[in-house]
UniProtKB/TrEMBL annotation:
It comes from Mastacembelus armatus. The lineage of its organism: Eukaryota, Metazoa, Chordata, Craniata, Vertebrata. InterPro entries: HCII_serpin_dom, Serpin_CS, Serpin_dom, Serpin_fam, Serpin_sf, Serpin_sf_1, Serpin_sf_2. Keywords: Signal. Residues 141-502 form the Serpin domain. Transmembrane segments: none annotated. Belongs to the serpin family. It comes from the Eukaryota. GO terms for biological process: blood coagulation. This is Serpin peptidase inhibitor, clade D (heparin cofactor), member 1. Pfam families: Serpin.
Length: 505
């Protein structure tokens, strides 16, 4: 019995402005403030891929990690310019049968008919790529809830659903029929495929390839990268079709390695450290020499606020962790035009903090300290769509804590709860990858996010109990909150997190 290991590594990094860039180490040293505040510091056929695609994406079977720099990262602009991608297909909007207007899509979500009605209503007038990201987000919120149930209420949480969805999409390429169906059901890919007669299983992989192009191009004003590394034990035979499809759809090529060699651990860690600009230094502390396959998904984001927070306005203030506990933390302050909304049904206020490049952080702040549980239970693509549709723009004063989160999860038990069981048992079928019997014994997800003054380096629906936040002129984030990072061209939920105590990572 071979053992498969999957590691999903997600990283969100502080973005300095183009002028006056600081050493990255300065973002991890908590400066001693004066009594008032801080002192400022100084349609795809794998066999028919054009020659340009193969040339730009050649990956050898040797581990060559030394000297990995920005120019070594796949240049998707060149790939697109070479005509190697049908760049229009993912933006097509085909008609789907949406539920009748009298169906209450905000009713009990455990009813499968209601869940499908919600999904199809959200799919209306959305592109194919946006539809895939709706199901990716739904999976992400469900996974968040599973993690929430396994940690203390006082714990911070950080999760990168986009990276995990990409990794599981790639794993499904190697899965046999039953295991493949289980992945598609648990991830929501099956719901996507069944939404339109135009779709089939390969549509999912085509759109993940397109999502990679859309998210990780260089010219959008932010830096967002995802790299999938696939390592396979030397004496395990990998099917040619799996090699070709992982390379074609996910820009990854399986590399033959000896997991018993210490050099593998060092080189793999060094590569991740470089990709994440030093934020994730040693994700692999040990490697089981009996592993047959390791998948590492590295996600890196660097963004700059459209409206930076003036450093001289940052001061220590109280943050209410609970009814009995306050902590003194650096609170950033800014005044400007911001989009916001009030959700009276979920009793929370929502603020949109935009980064340069049509990507933003949504802050969802419960009005009561006890309101986090309800917000976490109910948050969904439907709810987020409602927030974004009903936001109003006006001048507001925003007060937000600086924070840094570092989280590490083994997701096997969480994914089992969500229906992914075959992957981790002898009954798992990976016949699409190899003829040998394998099972997955480890799925690790690790992430870091730092938020400071510069930025972060890491169809209408029925409105129920919902009003624009038009009267509020101050938005003070001084108690536990949720944050979401969305890329708005694709409606992609990149990160979701919970900050209960910003003084702890």
């Amino acid at each position: 019995m071979w053992v498969i290991t999957v590691i999903s590594v997600a990283c969100l990094l502080v973005s300095p402005s183009l002028a006056g860039i600081k050493e990255i180490s300065s973002h991890f040293t908590d400066p001693k403030p004066d009594p008032r505040g801080f002192e400022p510091e100084g349609g795809l056929d794998v066999q028919a891929l054009p020659v340009e695609f193969h040339k730009e994406n050649t990956v050898t079977n040797d581990l060559v990690f030394d000297g990995f720099e920005d120019e070594d990262y796949i240049d998707f602009d060149k790939i697109i310019a070479a005509g190697s991608d049908d760049y229009i297909e993912g933006d097509e909007i085909d008609e789907i049968a949406t539920p009748a207007p009298d169906i209450d899509i905000f009713a009990e979500p455990s009813d499968p008919k209601i869940r499908r009605a919600r999904l199809l209503r959200l799919f209306h007038s959305q592109s194919r790529l946006q539809r895939l990201n709706i199901v990716n987000a739904r999976f992400g919120f469900n996974l968040y809830r599973s993690i929430r149930n396994h940690v203390n209420q006082s714990n911070n949480i950080l999760l990168a659903p986009a990276g995990i969805s990409i990794a599981m999409g790639m794993m499904s390429l190697g899965a046999g029929s039953r295991t493949h169906d289980q992945i598609y059901k648990a991830m929501g890919f099956g719901d996507f495929v069944n939404a339109s007669h135009h779709y089939d299983n390969r549509t999912v992989h085509k759109l993940f390839r397109k999502l990679t192009h859309r998210l990780f191009r260089r010219n959008f004003g932010y830096t967002l990268r995802s790299v999938n590394d696939v390592y396979i034990k030397k004496d395990v035979s990998v099917k040619d079709a799996f090699r070709a499809e992982t390379k074609a759809f996910y820009f990854a090529e399986p590399q033959s390695v000896d997991f018993r060699e210490p050099a593998f651990l060092n080189k793999a860690n060094r590569r991740i450290q470089k990709l994440t600009k030093g934020l994730i230094k040693e994700p692999l502390k040990s490697v089981d020499p009996n592993m047959v396959l390791m998948l590492l998904n590295t996600l890196y984001f660097k963004g700059t606020w459209e409206q930076k927070f003036p450093k001289e306005m940052t001061h220590y203030r109280n943050f209410r962790v609970s009814e009995r506990t306050n902590v003194r933390v650096p609170m950033m302050t800014n005044k400007g035009n911001y989009l916001a909304a009030a959700d009276h049904e979920l009793e929370c206020d929502v603020l949109r903090l935009p980064y340069t490049g049509n990507i933003s952080m949504l802050i969802a702040l419960p009005r009561k300290l006890t309101g986090m549980r309800t917000l976490e239970k109910e948050i969904s693509p439907t709810v987020v769509n409602k927030w974004l549709t009903n936001m109003t723009n006006r001048t507001r004063e925003v007060v937000l804590p600086r924070f840094k989160l570092e989280q590490n999860y083994d997701l096997i038990e969480n994914l089992k709860e969500m229906g992914l069981t075959d992957l981790f048992q002898d009954s798992g079928d990976f016949s699409g990858m190899t003829s040998e019997k394998v099972a997955m014994n480890w799925l690790k997800h690790q992430g870091t996010i730092t938020v400071n003054e510069e930025g972060t380096e890491a169809a209408a629906l029925t409105q129920v109990g919902f009003m624009p936040l038009s009267s509020q002129i101050r938005f003070v984030v001084d108690h536990p909150f949720l944050f979401l990072i969305y890329e708005h061209r694709t409606d992609c939920l990149v990160f979701i997190g919970r900050v209960v105590n910003p003084s702890q990572s």
